[in-house]
Amino acid sequence: MPADLLSAAGTVLVVSVVTPMIMKAIAPKEGKVKEKDGYFKLDYSKGYYAAMYVTMAFFSGISVIAYLHPGKTKPETMVWVLCVFGFFVALSFFTILAMSRGATYYNQDEIKGSDAFGRRRSIKWQDIAAVDYIGWAQGFRISSKSRETIWIFPVMQGFPAFYDMLVQKAHEKGIEAPQEEDR
Question: Biggest alpha carbon distance in the chain?
Answer without folding.
Answer: 66
